[in-house]
From TrEMBL:
GO biological process terms, semicolon-separated: regulation of DNA-templated transcription
Domain Response regulatory: 8-121
Gene3D superfamilies from the UniProt entry: 3.40.50.2300, 6.10.250.690, Winged helix-like DNA-binding domain superfamily/Winged helix DNA-binding domain
Organism: Nocardioides agri
Protein name: Response regulator
């Protein structure tokens, strides 16, 4: 069998002593790695479509959170992992609210970074709903292969995490999916952050679905999890 093309990773880090071992480690793992040292160069490079961006927040020109937000607004659908020395729960939740998929605090071990990268790329490449190419709910169409969601003909711009949460809920339509399962399937066992991250992601997902007039609703079942329900109301 032919080998798959190497997955492309963009490292955005202005400190050489952090960037070099990171790039070397990822290249040894078989990834095609590109390194840039500023937010503007990162945004310019995203057009080439790397599967994963490892993004430092403390950049010299544009704050990493702003880079993350602009990347998502520009339609970047790949995975974004934020790396930062900034401590605190607020930064973690705010970072993910800007459209990041994962978060790693400095200093970090290279083995942990490798595990996170593998998990993110595996999820980015995986299809969350069996072998079906697309899942249709009333007024909502999920194209799993392309990782895109449509309301009628209009695309709903979702981050990687929002897409995965919606995919799992759609595959279990009208059934409750537990918070634990969503955290395990979407953030995996390497995630040590707060489950508030799930609530932030669900909140953004609801806003986006409502903004395009989708009648499907993500409903919280107190103490258990979430359920996708609704659709075209009965006449």
């Amino acid at each position: 069998m032919l080998a798959h093309m190497a997955q492309r990773v963009l490292v955005v880090e202005d400190e050489e002593d952090i960037a070099f071992p990171l790039v070397r480690t990822l290249e040894r793992e078989g990834y095609d790695v590109e390194w840039v040292d500023s937010g503007q160069r990162a945004l310019d490079t995203l057009a080439s479509g790397p599967e994963l961006v490892i993004l430092d927040l403390g950049l010299p020109d544009i704050d990493g959170l702003e880079v993350c937000r602009r990347a998502r607004e520009a339609g970047y659908h790949g995975a974004i992992m934020i790396v930062t020395a900034r401590a605190g729960e607020l930064d973690r939740v705010v970072g993910l609210d800007y459209g990041a998929d994962d978060y790693l605090a400095k200093p970090f071990g290279l083995a942990e970074l490798q595990a996170r990268v593998r998990a993110l790329l595996r999820r980015t490449a995986s299809t969350m709903i069996g072998s079906a190419d697309a899942t249709q709910t009333d007024g909502l169409r999920i194209d799993v292969e392309a990782r895109r969601v449509y309301a009628g003909t209009e695309e709903v711009p979702l981050t990687g995490k929002e897409f995965e949460v919606l995919s799992i809920l759609a595959a279990n339509r009208d059934k409750v999916v537990s918070r634990g399962r969503l955290m395990a399937d979407v953030w995996d066992e390497n995630w040590y952050g707060s489950t508030k991250t799930l609530d932030v992601t669900i909140g953004r997902l609801r806003q986006k679905l409502e903004s395009v007039g989708v009648t499907d609703r993500v409903v919280a079942v107190r103490g258990v999890g979430f359920r996708l329900e609704g659709g075209t109301p009965d006449a």
